[in-house]
Amino acid sequence: MSSKAILEPQLTEISVENDPDILAAAARLAGEDLCSIADLSSSEVRAILKLGHDVKRNPRDYRHALDAKQMVLMFEKASLRTRLSFETGINTMGGNAIFVDQTNSPLGEREAISDVARNVDRWVDVIVLRTYAHDTIMEMGANARTPVINALSDFEHPCQALADFMTLEEHFGTVAGLNFTYVGDGNNVCHSLMLTGAQLGANVTIATPRGYSPDIEIVTKAREIAESNGSEIKLLQDPHAAVENADAIYTDVCVSMGMEHESTKRAPIFRPYQVNEALMAEASPRAVFMHCLPAHRNAEVTDAVLDGPQSIVFDQAENRMHAQKAVLLLLLGGLVNVTKFQ
Ligand code: CP
Ligand code: NVA
């Protein structure tokens, strides 16, 4: 199969304004937080993706959906994609973004997180947080009257996973029954991917070194969800066994932000998990390569794979914006301002 065939979108257009998943999600999610993919039902995950595809196809339909809405981004860690995709996302729907760099001033240090929440919610309509501790996001959510969105914590990266499965839908038409393999650290990205894959009925296989497997509570939750959707979650240590029949191979850095002190220890442990051309050749011939980025080139993935014909990493990056626009529309009740939904 040629690379062109792999990259050809096969998605069927739907009429979003009559879609039962979207209408139910618009009613249930208005005013809610998005801290974890587990906060969503399978139908709500499907709704976000369907709306994301429509926002991508018809951006003008949504250009006034969030007129004058204010979004604050408070980030304790560096970001390229997440910051810009949220900012461009709300700007193209009539809203405004305010960025607060918390890299030198972690949330909770200068003043209690509950007090930050009870100030900020007087001025803005949504709070987007990138933190170390997942509890920081939970505490902000518990105290703010506005929706709070997890833009990456040490535990989850839900917006990333939503964009990633939206990208897989573009490439394969549907992800139900798709064989999705993650190779590397059982980290925040891995957690959100497992939950999202389970919500959409994909078979998710994770290969991690011993001692780096995903959190057991997430695994248990993902298995429960997968079972109800007729799919499977497998945990392995052998990357070769994990990629057999894989339709998508995903990896992430083996040293996440905040773990830099473990770089030397981790490098040899993760070397056998590198995604290179030999490993890609063991997967299905139609397999795509995925990475949340930023990548450490020639560490967890080789240049040949990252820049090769099977790589869809920049489609993933683009879709961060479209998927997050869908999330913002649902949490901020923006569909009432979109003519086709009236
Ligand atoms: N994938 C991702 O979240 O990228 P940034 O760290 O650049 O935001
Ligand atoms: N696991 C990585 C993802 C970066 C987008 C980290 O947390 O640094």
Concise structural overview:
The chain has 14 helices and 9 strands. It has 342 residues and is of the alpha/beta class.
Bound molecules: phosphoric acid mono(formamide)ester, norvaline
Spatial extent as radius of gyration: 19 Å
In terms of per-residue confidence, which ranges show pLDDT below 50 for 5 or more consecutive residues?
1-7
* DSSP helix fraction: 40-55%
Order of helices and strands: HHHEHEHEHEHEHEHEHEHHEHH
Strand order of the largest sheet: 7-6-5-8-9
Helix/strand/pairing category: alpha/beta
Terminal residue distance: 44 Å
- Biggest β-sheet strands, sense, barrel: 5 strands, parallel
Shape: globular
Number of helices: 14
CATH topology of the largest domain: Rossmann fold
What do these coordinates show?
It is a single chain. The chain has 342 residues and is α/β, with parallel strands linked by helices. The protein folds into two domains: 15-156 and 320-341, Rossmann fold, CATH 3.40.50.1370; 160-317, 3-Layer(aba) Sandwich (Rossmann fold). It is 41% helix and 12% strand. It has helices spanning 3-7, 20-29, 42-57, 81-91, 113-120, 134-143, 158-172, 188-199, 216-228, 239-243, 263-270, 277-281, 303-306, 313-331, and strands at 70-75, 96-101, 126-130, 148-150, 179-183, 203-207, 233-236, 248-251, 288-291. A five-stranded parallel beta sheet has the order 7-6-5-8-9. α8 links the parallel β5 (179-183) and β6 (203-207). The longest helix is centred in the C-terminal third of the chain and has 19 residues, at 313-331. The model is unreliable at 1-7 (pLDDT under 50). Residues 152, 187-189, 252-253, 256-257, 292 line the site of norvaline. The site of phosphoric acid mono(formamide)ester has 9 residues, from α4.
